[in-house]
Amino acid sequence: MIEKLIAELGASVGVALPAVRVTGQDPVLLSVFRLGTMAAASAGAVSAAVAVYAARRGHAAEPDPEPSPEPKPAPNFGLNPAPDLAPNSGPNSAPNSGPGSRDPEVAIDVRHAAVAFQSERLFRTDGKAMDVWAALSGDYPASDGWVRLHCNFDHHRNAALRALGLAPGSGGQAVERACAGRTAVEVEEVVVREGGCAAAMRSRAEWLAHPQAQTLYGLPLVGLSRLSGPGGRDNGRGTGHGDGVVRRGARGAGGGGDLSAGYGPGPGEVGERGAGAGHGPGRGQVGERGAGGWERPLGGVRVLDLTRVIAGPVAARTLAAYGAEVLRVGAAHLPEVPGLVVETAFGKRSCHVDLRSEAGRDRLRELVRGADVVIQAYRPGTLQARGFGPDDLAALRPGLVCVDVSAYGSRGPWASRRGFDSLVQMASGIAHENGDGLRPAPLPAQALDHGTGYLAAFGAVAALIRRAAEGGSWHVEVSLARTAAWLDDLGRIDGGGVPLPPAEDLLATMDSPFGTLTYVMPPGLAGGVRPGWTTPPPRQGEHPAAWLP
């Protein structure tokens, strides 16, 4: 099933992916949903696309005579030990990949991918876990059901309090009383109107009848389209590879040409610039030639990361794990979730740019001119209002790949609605079905965030492949709600009583400015290359707003 899903993802964006060797199977996490399948398919698609991209550039991996050190095993945090999986075994192994086959070796392990979906839960700083939830974030009983408020940012908390008629500084009991006197949808709507973040718990049937769900039904899981304007041999949106859509309920999505052959660099491709910040490998790090001593397949690709809070940062972090130079752009006045901004920043550099000033907007334009990929997760239309929509960015840098990550998609009545993983789980029926239907039961991972992040990274690499073959600038669109629809389509499984998957063999440590970090190593294998990060998370704004020379 997972191999088929990966092949369909490739076909949906016009890229023929190599066979992927899959080890393990669901159930791996405690849920009725096929979380391991989604994790392995999304992360495995990234590995397969990276292998294609590397082969096209003529950078097929070759052994390093002096391999870089492997990450140091992490301390045991009370998780059950598990034997290593044999590299060529497993009930779902694909026979036509790896040495001796025409395809580059690509592999994904279901357990590793599922554990990576829980990366923030396993992350430690000097042995201490992080608490990502603010005091008022949570599920509240309403007069007819449940509603969730997301208050991790102060301005969202203040908006929720205003919407509920509560004074600044009110606590959880006051919020609970205010919600109890209203229906769940009433709380949702009043909070959203005030600029806050909320979602009523809906059943699957209620969500499927909702206008936003109806809009999502016809949208692609990974939207990939040609941008108009300069940058290629054919600047129209027609590509000759179908419409780039994997639609709900449609397992196959009509193909496109075979772009997996080992050609050299094509039109619009970048040369080697050298990724990373110039640090040598340390404890828990891989060398510039990658874990296991192989050349890093995305070396020379520049990625501008304009995202916060899991999905977008995971996408950029994934590209960094395969060697891309990632520059994360924040601003001193923008709120962050302290632990998450560290956990998702491995392999990146960090700068501050204030888009409220013309000087800041000029600086961002200059960064865009040097980028290959821009990933942004502002609400649809927000950056476009400041002159940084996809077409604006492509005009600044012909050949650019623009990746948009949103909560509910860029179309439909909820297109501009603020949202987070936990809220989309509530709205889409996942929290309802994952429990007993009486009170919400979230998934055992921020699965919509992580799945969407991997799909965004996959879309970015697929667009780079298409750019190499056809030229042009490209637009990728993914959303948490569309990923939720995909998870729904994957069906159900008897995941009751599934123990926590062993993870200690998938953890490593790295020294950083914040202390010793314990983290989940990135899953996958692309053309024989294991992903890994060469640098620890930086402090926010630590670096200049400029690309490496």
Task: Provide keyphrases for this structure.
549 residues; alpha/beta; 7-stranded mixed sheet; 3-stranded mixed sheet; 18 helices; 31% helix
Written description of the protein model:
This protein has 18 helices and 16 strands. By secondary structure, the chain is of the alpha/beta class. Mean pLDDT is 84; it is low at 59-101, 232-285 and 287-294.
Mean pLDDT: 84
> Runs with pLDDT <50, length 5+?
59-101, 232-285, 287-294
Query: If strands are numbered along the chain, what order do they take across the biggest sheet?
Result: 7-13-12-11-8-9-10
Main beta sheet: strand number and arrangement? 7 strands, mixed
What is the CA-atom radius of gyration, in angstroms?
Answer: 22 Å
- Tell me roughly what share of residues is in helical segments: 25-40%
The rough form would be described as globular
Protein structure class: alpha/beta
Per DSSP E runs of 2 or more residues, the count of β-strands stands at: 16
Number of helices: 18
The percent range for strand residues is 5-15%
CA distance, first residue to last residue: 44 Å
